[in-house]
Amino acid sequence: MRRILLITLVFIFTSLTFAQRQNSGLSNIQPANELEAKFKEISPEAGRRFKLGLLKLQKNQLREAKEEFNRSVELFLESGININRAGGSFQACYTQLIETIYRIEFPSPAYKPDIKFLVLTCRWDKDNIPDNDIDDRLIADVNKLIFSVTNKDESRNADSLIESKDESIAALQDRKYGLESQSFEPSPLDELAKLELTPEEQQVDTAQYEVIKLTAENRSLGFSFQAHPMIQQFINYYQGRGRQTMETGLYRSGLFIRMARRIFREEGLPENLVWLGQVESMWKPTALSRAAASGLWQFIPGTGSRFGLRQNVYIDERNSFEAATRAAARYLKFLADRYNGNWELALAAYNSGEGNVDRAIARAGVANFWYAYPYLPLETRNYVPSILATILIANNPHRYGFSHIRPARPLEYDLVRVPPMTSLSLVAQAADTTVEFIRYLNPEFRTGKTPPEPYIVRVPKGKANDVVAVLRKARAVNQDNLAVVKVLSGETIDDVARRLGVSPDQLKAINGNEIPKQGKIVVPMARNIQRTTYQRPAASTNNSETTAPKAKPKAVRAQKGDTIRKIAERYKVSVAETGKLNGKLPDEPLSPGAVVRLP
User: Fold this and answer.
1) Whole-number pLDDT of residue 109
2) What is the distance between the alpha carbons of residues 541 and 561, in angstroms, rounded to a whole number?
3) Contact criterion met (CB below 8 Å) for 434 and 428
4) How many angstroms separate the CA atoms of 239 and 245, rounded?
5) CATH for 191-395?
6) What does the pLDDT read at residue 182?
7) pTM of the predicted model as reported, rounded to 2 decimal places
8) Please, what is the end-to-end C-alpha distance for the chain in angstroms?
9) DSSP per-residue string spanning 272-301
10) Fold identical between 191-395 and 555-597?
11) What fold, for 555-597?
């Protein structure tokens, strides 16, 4: 049988770079006095850079702020010290710096950046660095700035932030967080938190309810649950007002459902519980709720950390595919054990936390979801029957009027283990795709580079060997100054050097003396070589490989019933490139008013 999802894991066996050595954990532990000396050497400059970042942030210069924050971190990474084994002030300062920058970029009332604690930990106070005092006024200004939107969000009214209804929809479709280009989509949980069923939706059809009771009695879903009229009521909702939500979720489920079923099965969970992902995120890895829950499985920062998901300035594994799915399975298993196999209570706790469920059980006097129901938050009261309704519909779409939905094909990609701090632009060029599509495949990345340790990156299916070949050549060169160029038919290394105006010796030092089989070489950036994202070559008689960057892509708003395919055909542009540019599938339904960028 042909495997629809084929994941090829390719390891790059190269000598470790300097950055790899310092993070591998294999180097010797430095003596305490050496660590302290190095800390005193770099800490003041790191503090100055961090303060510059705050000042840039104060002026709303986000990109410049990010550059200063990054430089503050890089001073530690370039120190030659093995941070993972350093201990003492060195490791404490680095760890708190990473945490603080992350909290600045992702503000949440429950997880505020503690800049004062960072200053004390790193000894950046005026007694140690007199000319770099990060005073209370600056801290207050920064906190006021980063929490100005968060405080408004507490009203849970998205439209209150933007005067125009159309603008509010567009803003939610392309909501941005952080200081770089990581973007998010609204979580369906925000709607569920305020949903009230209409009298019509609360009507219970006797025949359909009998099916629910029979399913519960037979445990035909693979786990036990208690039949309740509200499950039927949510089926009514999804057959009416919530139809588009259900249709979109069933369609997008094809991207991840096989991966999720495999992981849930490996973790010993009933496979049908994977449909929790539809209610949580509508199968969108970049979904973000107003409670700061993120990813396919909507982990809040604290719970994500509890179950091993790293969150720092480089990555947020809550947005990953496999890691977040495994963490969700383990969290559900933990909750099921806590509530003695009662899956309704486990699901309720997944949504609102163990504390809320424990208090509701105490007030109800019995460990039963439907008895505890009146004492739970509205979102949780909606959440559990919504999941059970979704599972019933997904298992029998024909019965409930969704047989016309064909799930999307599973997302296909190769896996490549790359060196620390690898440029996503270089990976994209090597894989003949765009940086946007690399980020779509790797939504956990928060910057334009991979983390400062070896990391497994998803690349388009069939492109692993190309990426490996380019990264092997680039391992000893500053990747920020590299481009990938396609060799023209019959060209030699010397021909390419003449065409691009670079030294043949430079090209040979990076690529060797022969043109590689892939027909691509790595070139140091020169004055006449422009760094661009990959563009599919058009038919042309012009042999020049260097092209001017395209103008900034146009953007349009989706109309009711639009898909990427319909919009691309309407404007006579590539369906594939439009999908990649927007991180959407060709036939995925778009919300009216959604902003769609055109290539």
Assistant:
1) 64
2) 40
3) yes
4) 10
5) 1.10.530.10
6) 54
7) 0.67
8) 37
9) GGGGHHHHHHTT-TTEE-TTS-BTTTTB-H
10) no
11) Membrane-bound Lytic Murein Transglycosylase D; Chain A (3.10.350)
Counting every residue, how long is the chain? 599
- Cα–Cα nearest to 228, from 421, 92, 334, 368: 368
412 in catalytic set: no
Q: Where are the domains of the chain?
A: 7-16+414-549, 31-150, 191-395, 555-597
Q: Express each pLDDT in 540-582 by its tens digit.
A: 334 433 333 444 456 788 888 888 888 988 888 888 778 767 7
Left if phi > 0, otherwise alpha if psi is -120 to 50, otherwise beta: which for 207? alpha
Q: Which of 280, 344, 444, 491 is catalytic?
A: 280
Rounded to whole angstroms, the Cα distance separating 139 from 372 reads: 43
The amino acid present at 405, given as its one-letter code, is I
- State the amino acid at position 187 in one-letter form: S
* Nearest by Cα to 385 from 229, 215, 576: 229
What pLDDT is stored for residue 229 in this prediction? 97
d(CA 107, CA 418): 30
Strand residue runs (E) in 8-141:
9-11
Which residues make Cβ contacts (< 8 Å) with residue 310, sequence separation at least 6?
316, 317
Low-confidence ranges of the chain (pLDDT < 70): 1-30, 83-85, 106-111, 130-132, 146-183, 475-481, 513, 516-518, 525-554, 580, 583
* Alpha-carbon gap, residue 341 to 268, rounded angstroms: 13
- In angstroms, rounded to a whole number, what is the distance separating the alpha carbons of residues 143 and 159? 24
